């Protein structure tokens, strides 16, 4: 009989659009012979992330009812307890938090809840950074600072968008917040998996230095009240000739305040799902995979930003439906 081994848990965090899902998909796609249970939490009423994560044997557990660090901690505990009743099915748990989550309460769950604590071991908090946007954001985004302070491993991602001098500046800023974490520079989160998984890197003593009340359950934190999310949904197919120029225009016009946009779209006369994403003004779009027979061809877009004009954006979006007059 083998001795009981607590289940290793890796928390993937990082500000909006930094590359957490990209890293998660890399971990899940690599040939390593291990199986991971995945928990994804996102900010916004319409779940999109679940659809952007590659297929896994165990499925993806979604928590969309709020921020993982606030209202859904009870859900997190229940999901983990449920997973622990399926021993032998997987080798580790990966948790992707929303870009607006403070990782402290997530990490705290693995120490203050007796049951979870007995069965799991927090292996590492990995923080992904958008090298292109970090310096513009960090002073306004309290969550981004917390995510860096709590990390034991940091990926300075999107290195392809910066020169060495800019990356050095980003690294210097990160070091002011976290002098000890292991830092890697990456493009599309490409790095050997051993750099992020199974390192036993989480160090409670260091965390208690950063946050002396870490183990105190009443620990409070605040979110930026101006950051809000809304979702747009339609089951009428969209006309790409209208939608693509419109979304480019929206991204240009509102890019400064638009922290994140992502969507899964059904275009007219197109059997493939189209995924569109933006982080501020950087926009990407591509076909993903064919719509399945049993899937409703619904277009969903989620916007997260500071004081974005929902009515203007919604009006423009609805005008992109096939057969409607353009804006
Ligand atoms: N140029 C460039 N783009 C990247 C890189 N890594 C990720 N992206 C793109 O950045 C966008 C956000 O990536 P995600 O992996 O979805 O980021 P995320 O942190 O999961 O985003 P949220 O969970 O929505 O906050 C996508 O359009 C990616 O294709 C990179 O290294 N370079």
Overview of this structure, please?
The protein is α/β, with parallel strands linked by helices. The chain has 2 domains: 7-210, P-loop containing nucleotide triphosphate hydrolases (Rossmann fold, 3-Layer(aba) Sandwich), CATH 3.40.50; 227-319, CobW-like, C-terminal domain (Hypothetical Protein Yjia, Chain: A,domain 2, 2-Layer Sandwich). The protein contains 11 helices and 12 strands. The protein has a 7-stranded parallel β-sheet, with helices on both faces. Helix 10 (240-254) packs antiparallel against helix 11. The mean pLDDT is 86. Guanosine-5'-triphosphate is lined by residues 14, 16-22, 49, 99, 157-158, 160-161, 187-188, 260, 262, 277, 279, 284. Residues 227-321 form the CobW C-terminal domain. One of its GO terms (molecular function) is hydrolase activity. This is Cobalamin biosynthesis protein CobW.
């Amino acid at each position: 009989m083998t001795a009981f081994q607590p289940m290793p848990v890796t928390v993937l965090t990082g500000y909006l659009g930094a590359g957490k899902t990209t890293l998660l998909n890399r971990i899940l796609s690599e040939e390593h012979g291990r199986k991971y249970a995945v928990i994804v939490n996102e900010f916004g009423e319409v779940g999109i992330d679940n659809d952007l994560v590659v297929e896994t044997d165990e499925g993806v557990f979604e928590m969309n009812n709020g921020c993982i660090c606030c209202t859904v901690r009870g859900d997190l505990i229940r999901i983990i307890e449920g997973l622990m009743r399926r021993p032998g099915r997987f080798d580790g748990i990966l948790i992707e938090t929303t870009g607006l989550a403070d990782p402290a309460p997530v990490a705290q769950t693995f120490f203050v809840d007796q049951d979870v604590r007995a069965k799991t071991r927090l292996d590492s908090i990995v923080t992904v950074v958008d090298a292109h946007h970090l310096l513009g954001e960090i002073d306004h985004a309290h969550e981004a600072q917390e995510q860096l302070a709590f990390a034991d491993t940091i990926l300075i991602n999107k290195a392809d968008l910066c020169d060495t001098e800019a990356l050095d500046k980003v690294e210097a800023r990160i070091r002011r917040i976290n002098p000890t974490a292991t830092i890697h520079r990456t493009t599309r989160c490409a790095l050997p998996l051993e750099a992020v998984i199974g390192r036993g890197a989480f160090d409670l003593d260091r965390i208690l230095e950063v946050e002396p009340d870490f183990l105190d359950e009443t620990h409070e934190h605040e979110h930026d009240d101006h950051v809000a999310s809304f979702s747009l949904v339609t089951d009428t197919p969209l006309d790409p000739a209208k939608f693509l120029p419109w979304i480019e225009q929206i991204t240009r016009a509102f890019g400064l305040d638009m922290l994140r946009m992502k969507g899964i779209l059904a275009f007219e006369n197109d059997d493939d799902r189209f995924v569109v994403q933006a982080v501020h003004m950087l926009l990407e779009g591509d076909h993903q995979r064919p719509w399945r027979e049993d899937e409703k061809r619904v277009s969903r877009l989620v916007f997260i930003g500071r004081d974005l004009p929902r009515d203007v954006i919604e009006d423009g979006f609805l005008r992109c439906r096939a057969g409607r007059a353009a804006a």
